[in-house]
Amino acid sequence: MSRIVYVNGEYLPEEQAVVSVFDRGFLMADGVYEVTSVLGGKLIDFAGHCARLNRSLGELDMARPCSDEELLAIHRELVARNGIVDGLVYLQVTRGNPGDRDFVFPDPDETKPTLVLFTQSKPGLAESPAAKTGWKVISIDDIRWGRRDIKTTQLLYPSMGKMMAKKAGADDAWLIEDGFVTEGTSNNAYIVKGGRIITRALSNDILHGITRAAVLRFASEAQMQVEERSFTIDEAKTADEAFVTSASAFVMPVVEVDGAALGDGRPGPVATRLREIYLEESLKAAV
Ligand code: PDD
Fold it and tell me: Domains in the chain, please, with CATH?
């Protein structure tokens, strides 16, 4: 059975799901996106992803393609039509197809946004074997643009970062700016020292992770100490443990930073506990 993809109001087999070559998402990376995980057929943190999507659109003066209720209905319809039990729903909104290439934004009354959603089936997503062994990360320069708080589809450098990590035998790269870690290529970064969870404070420098917000809330509720401040890669190398968070990795322990093993080189107790709490609580609230 071919995957069913949503494009501008239609549910189509993936071979028939197409977007114009003049779409500004294709020509200019003039688009924003969200990735929402699905566990047991239900959406995790949907309201948070919807709120961030609306913020991204607002920051770029891009029109909302439809209401939050309609977006939820489309997500659910795609999950059902594709029989997704565990996996992801990818959503992308672009400034649409003005019919030609031009740096100037098209008139929103004439050019409607493009809305595309598709699913990725990932059976056993929450039981990822990597969570038992943890990730190795390397550090690379953060040369991305200055509005990383907007979830745009400009993913070339994060993609290059993943490739640099892969080449170095690691799982991901942590991005460094002015000596401090901003975030991972596609996740937020944390270290743990003396039981305190340390992660960079929110600003335009990083994406405001939906998983981050939930994990920090659960950590506080579990009486864990959270410190929102920047940390250096040297501090990370000597941390007791480390981890990253994202909608696709949930809470993923990090066991090695630039070749330095953290603790005993295995996932630490704080990351392991936070992963359990996150999965348990998010499942309870899933829609
Ligand atoms: N990435 N930082 C960056 C740069 C990201 O791309 C992501 C998410 C996050 C974590 O955000 P959240 O917890 O809301 O997923 C942080 C998604 C998963 C992706 O690009 O596939």
Answer: 4-124 (3.30.470.10), 130-285 (3.20.10.10)
pLDDT tens string 82-130: 999 999 999 999 999 999 999 999 999 999 999 999 999 999 999 999 9
Cα 61 to Cα 19, 112, 113: the distances in Å are 21, 13, 11
Q: Which atom, in ligand 1's list, is nearest to the CA of 206?
A: 2
Distance CA 59, CA 149 (A): 10
Any atom of ligand 1 within 6 Å of the Cβ of 35? yes
- Does 188 sit in the ligand 1 pocket, CB within 6 Å? yes
Tell me which residue of 183, 179, 105 sits closest to 151, measured CA to CA. 183
pLDDT of residue 82: 98
Regions of the chain short of the pLDDT cut 70: 1
Report the pLDDT value the prediction gives residue 276, as an integer from 0 to 100: 98
Residue minimizing CA distance to atom 17 of ligand 1: 186
